[in-house]
Amino acid sequence: SRFVAATTQVRRIENLARSFASSTNPPTDVGDLFRAAIVLLVSAHDYFIHELTRIGMLQALVGTRTRTDAYERFHVGMASVRDAVTNPSKPDWLEAEIFQQHSLLSFQRAEKVADAIRLIYPNPLWPDVARRMNSPVSDIKNRLDLIVDRRNKIEHEADLDPSQPGHPWPIWSVNVIRAMYFIKRVDKV
């Protein structure tokens, strides 16, 4: 899957950065490579949730997945209704509608992920994830949101530390590895 490929690429970037830093004297600052890995990781997570939701909604349409209350309340435009009536055996109309409605949405932060998953999963998401990960709900949601917050600082604020103008927040290999393993565990559940 593209999620697995992206997390493999995150690991390669992290390995490359560590290798490069250790092979130069003095060690080269490879923080920007670690930052790129965090951005890619959160992007892969967002993509995974989008795909999971899209596939699950199409399964619900054809009856191979239980339809949730949120699925039943999903609004579609009249053009999509016309397409569905004209060709009821093809789910293309729903796929186009999902893409149109979700294309500008971000499914990164814990609450936005839960909003998306409600379309395909009838139970509250985070208590089930917490039970499977053997951690409190608040810890899992907070940790995910902290990773996304760091990605947003990198993406939108150049990861600059306001207490040291012109200098980025420090970042290390361990930040990337921990974030990657955590998001892989969350998305695996």
Describe it for me?
The chain has 189 residues and is mostly helical. 70% of the residues lie in helices and 0% in strands. The chain is built from nine helices and no strands. The protein starts with a helix and ends with a helix. The relative contact order is 0.15.
What secondary-structure arrangement, pairings included, does this model have?
Blueprint: H1 2-23, H2 31-62, H3 69-72, H4 78-86, H5 92-102, H6 110-117, H7 125-133, H8 137-157, H9 173-188
Helix pairs in contact: 1-2, 1-9, 2-5, 2-8, 2-9, 4-5, 8-9
Q: What is the N-to-C succession of helices and strands?
A: HHHHHHHHH
SS field, number of helical segments: 9
The largest sheet, given as strand count, sense and whether it forms a barrel, is: none
Q: Estimate the mean pLDDT confidence.
A: 94
Strand percentage lies at under 5%
Query: Could you tell me the number of beta strands?
Result: 0
Distance between the termini: 16 Å
Strand pairing plus helix content: what structural class? mainly alpha
How would you name the oligomeric state of the polypeptide chains in this document?
Answer: single chain
**Which bin fits the share of residues in helices?**
55-70%
Low-confidence stretches: none
Task: Give the overall shape.
Answer: elongated
Radius of gyration: 20 Å
